[in-house]
Design brief:
nucleotide-binding; 23 strands; 3 domains; single chain; Four Helix Bundle (Hemerythrin (Met), subunit A); Heat Shock Protein 90; alpha+beta; 624 residues; binds adenosine-5'-triphosphate; Ribosomal Protein S5, domain 2; ATP-binding; stress response; nine-stranded mixed beta sheet; cytoplasm; elongated
Length: 624
């Protein structure tokens, strides 16, 4: 039985907040609402076509899926109607009352802080709700394909919406799909002009595969998009503008693509590929699901955008892969284990990476845009994609002590005499890394060091990696020996001018004081100005990785090795105070504790540290 009452519903809190922002801020690009509604209509047609493969009666004798845009100056309404899949009552409530995507809260927050949110809206795809930028009342009438009931959803923004059975007249007219009726605000009446509608459709929605019919108040309906699958056309007939338009329409994007890859694979399997790398970062890049969005089509019928057509570390790539050979009725579940799809995935991944390599060589400006936005994601491939690790390492760009956007190829070209390893340091920020004492020996020799600050860096660097036969080595690990690399002349002179403490005696003193607070005490070849630093054993994990893991409570930390600088006055003072056990203890612990602080950690016993510091400072003041 059909429920005849009108029922009021509240929007999810984020939706209300979003609508409030839409209504009260002035976005410069209100045009996007039409693109969003047309793209939803197109998705609905795609879904119908897909469901109709198994149930042809869903389309039956009815009209082929299409989209109509109907302006009415008399009623001040603009209607976007589609003969797609439609929504039943529950779907209207669920889909047009919430935003299902994670990260919505953070997005709304950013939107409220942004001056012009339209770029953000595009990144997140608020979709349907963008219609409230131009309409103060929206009525949605929908019939789910194959369904008997027709429902109406109405809202004036604000806190909620109402759902009621459609009037008899509406139910008769809407035989399948959805009509979205926008009651336009006074300042949005321009969208009733047919030339405005055509302008927007040509700019943003020309690539929609279904016919978009403009139904003017007078005269015959006419199709206003080309409705061709652009990826099926040959490269030679397409201009860069065609590609940019296709990108914007396929990826719902506002930026320009930084890379476009269009080709057709023929052979065992045939398929067309049209992929883009965006030039800006989308909002949900670091969502835990790490889902890609490349769309799978089979002979021009959309199947799914959930087929993981590329590895997760390429999830920023957008576009379409259209297969000629897969069965149309392939279920989404079957896609998981389909060997043909696995082949396609492998071949396309290889192709995307070689395209990135070429871009890096030929068009550094665009490559840099991709690396700036997605480098941290691509680096996930360094530990996930063993097979392509070398290629990805070669693609990677780093901030180093010598400059920015440095490749390992450039690094290797600048190796110092006797340098056989590639050095890096992992940490939170470039500034902190630059003042890290572990850099001192490298600096003193002019050796370049990669400064790695992306969270993912601690992970990929934990594998044993090589580039061009040179192992990558963390400066926070134990077995670094800089001795064979000559010091710069100034550093040599400076070092020789300083007195050094006796090695064996000093180490014995400090070891006796620190006991099992450290696994060992060693003389450092990496320090020139600081007194001490902590390093991991040569086979232990990088200290930064250990820190991250212990924060996540995934294992206790191992005791570090303390490295000391024999030429530092504090170390010299320990040697001199050999007879005064209390003083040697204080100074030795201070060496350990200041190294911990330089690593961004707390001393093991902060109260003891403060007491020790006060004692030493007071002694110093008294002696002065
Ligand atoms: N014309 C329509 N026909 C059928 N379902 C629709 C239609 N418009 C919207 N929907 C449903 O409402 C949901 C929410 O739409 P909305 O535009 O807010 O987000 P979306 O389309 O899922 O996301 P995005 O805009 O980022 O692609 C859609 O996922 C779809 O299920």
């Amino acid at each position: 039985m059909t429920d005849t009452a009108t029922v009021s519903h509240s929007f999810q809190a984020e939706v209300s907040e979003l609508l409030h922002l839409m209504v009260h801020s002035v976005y410069s690009e209100t045009d996007i609402f039409l693109r969003e509604l047309i793209s939803n209509a197109s998705d609905a047609c795609d879904k119908l076509r897909y469901e109709a493969i198994a149930k042809p009666e869903l389309i039956g004798e009815g009209e082929a899926p299409q989209i109509r845009v109907i302006p009415s100056k008399a009623a001040s309404t603009l209607t976007i109607a589609d003969s797609g899949i439609g929504m039943d009552r529950q779907e209207l409530i669920d889909h047009l009352g919430t935003i299902a995507r994670s990260g919505t809260k953070a997005f709304v927050q950013r939107l409220s802080e942004a001056k012009d949110g339209s770029g953000l809206i595009g990144q997140f795809g608020v979709g349907f709700y963008s219609a409230f930028m131009v309409a103060d009342r929206i009525v949605v009438i929908s019939r789910r394909a194959g369904g008997d009931e027709v429902w109406t959803w109405t809202s004036s923004g604000g806190a909620g919406f109402e759902v009621a059975p459609a009037s008899e007249e509406d139910a008769k007219r809407v035989t399948r799909g959805t009509e979205i009726v926008l009651h336009l605000k006074d300042d949005a009446k321009k969208y009733l002009e047919t030339y405005e509608i055509e302008r927007i459709v040509t700019a943003y929605s020309d690539n929609i595969q279904f016919p978009i019919m403009l139904v003017p108040e007078e005269g015959e309906p006419r199709q206003i998009n080309s409705a061709s699958a652009l990826w099926q056309r040959s490269k030679s007939e397409l201009t860069p503008e065609d590609y940019t338009k296709a990108y914007k329409s396929i990826a719902h994007a506002f930026d320009e693509p930084a890379m476009t890859l269009h080709y057709r694979a023929e052979g065992r399997y045939s398929y067309a590929v049209l992929l883009f790398a965006p030039s800006t970062k989308p909002f949900d890049l670091f969502e835990p699901a790490r889902k890609g969005k490349v769309k799978l089509y089979v002979r021009r019928v959309f199947i799914t955008d959930d087929a993981d057509l590329l590895p997760a570390y390429l999830r920023f790539v957008r576009g379409v892969i259209d297969s000629e050979d897969l069965p149309l009725n392939i279920s989404r579940e079957m896609l998981q284990n389909n060997p043909q799809l696995a082949q396609i995935r492998k071949a396309v991944t290889t192709r995307v990476i070689s395209e990135l390599e070429q871009l890096a060589e030929k068009d550094a400006a665009n490559f840099d845009k991709i690396w700036d936005s997605f480098g941290a994601v691509i680096k996930e491939g360094l530990y996930e994609d063993f097979e392509r690790r070398d290629k990805l390492l070669a693609l990677a760009r780093f901030t180093t002590t010598s400059g920015e956007k440095r490749s390992l190829k450039q690094y290797v070209e600048g190796l110092k005499e006797n340098q056989t390893e590639i050095y890096f340091l992992v940490g939170d920020s470039i500034e902190r890394l630059k003042s890290n004492p572990r850099l001192e020996a490298a600096k003193a020799r002019g050796v370049e060091v990669l400064l790695l600050t992306d969270p993912v860096d601690a992970f990929w660097t934990s594998a044993r990696l090589e580039f061009d036969g040179k192992p990558l080595k963390s400066l926070s690990q134990g077995d670094i020996n800089f001795d064979p690399i000559p010091l710069s002349e100034e550093q040599k002179a400076e070092d020789e001018a300083k007195p050094a403490a006796d090695e064996a005696d000093t180490i014995a003193l400090i070891k006796a004081s620190l006991g099992d607070h450290v696994t060992d005490v060693k003389v450092s070849t990496r320090l020139t100005t600081s007194a001490s630093c902590l390093v991991a054993g040569s086979h232990g994990p990088d200290r930064e990785l250990e820190r991250i893991l212990s924060q996540q409570a995934r294992g206790a930390r191992s005791k570090p090795i303390l490295e000391i600088n024999l030429r530092h006055p504090l170390v010299v003072a320990i040697a001199k105070a050999a007879a005064d056990k209390a003083k040697v203890d204080d100074l030795s612990f201070l060496l350990l504790e200041q190294a911990q602080i330089l690593d961004g950690e707390l001393p093991e016993d902060p109260a003891a540290f403060a007491a020790r510091l006060n004692r030493l400072v007071l002694q110093g003041v008294a002696a002065a």
